[in-house]
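HUMAN: Forgive my ignorance: could you write out one protein's sequence and backbone structure tokens?

ASSISTANT:
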Amino acid sequence: MACPTGITAGQNLKIYLSRFHGNDRCIKITIVDEELTLQQNRLKVGDYESDWDRNVLVCLEDGEPCYILYRLDTKNDEEDYQYVYLCYVPNDTSVRNKMLYAATRATLRRIFGDNRIKLEMFGTVPEELSYQGYKNCVLSQDARAPMTEAELELEKVSKDEAQMRSQMQNNSATLPGLNLPVTDDLAKNLDKFKSGFINYLQVKLDTDKEELKLWDCSNIKVTELPGKVPDDEPRYHLYNFQHDYEGQNMWKCVFIYSCPGYNSNAQVPVKQRMMYSSTKASFLGCLEQMGIEVTAKKEITDGSE
């Protein structure tokens, strides 16, 4: 399932949705400064078929993801107009924006009202969201056999997961199984950590370059570990904890994901939280493939934990 992003409707969208706009055919919404923001609303001229391409396609810009709510001419049982919910995420959109728009899609649907949405469409090129694309989608939906609620939910989960994987597939990796690239320095020090030359390693996710890089590596005592946790942004930590068990010297590899809490003074951007959270499982899988056995995992909000 898509993870929650913390993004909510901006003031201009709230004001718009609080009023009735009987002459509007569609509205375009984007994510700006971590808020769902109304970019434009377009008036209806003819019926929804003839209005489609001249309203929808003009809203789609190269490299700029957006949501579009397109009003049909039919109404639901509550006498509200029905809408087609379109999500446009071009292939050249940055990874973090692909993830952000995918994860926020359900939020906007809830804000607007599930009962008003008749059909949902997703596209990476304008042709997929054209009127012909809409007709193809309707035909495909009509051809499907009736499904139970459980089957529909399972199908939605599968689509969300497949979409997320496809959004990440173009990103190179210098370590097996990792969705984001890593720096050579990090790769070398992961080998050193595996071999026991260092017992502590800290990884930073660079959201601008969309890569994982080494932030700190050293040999430290366990009492020094809390001081390594930054209080203003997330990090991944690996620590080889040495201890005695029944007279034998043992090592225990601990993975720690630190991220300041929502109630802390640190204002961690939503995109940064999302990328750390979404990349964690892939990073752990990569460590396993490298032969680094993580025996304990912990998530904390500050070093005192």
User: Anything to note?
Assistant: The CA atoms of residues 65 and 265 lie 31 Å apart.
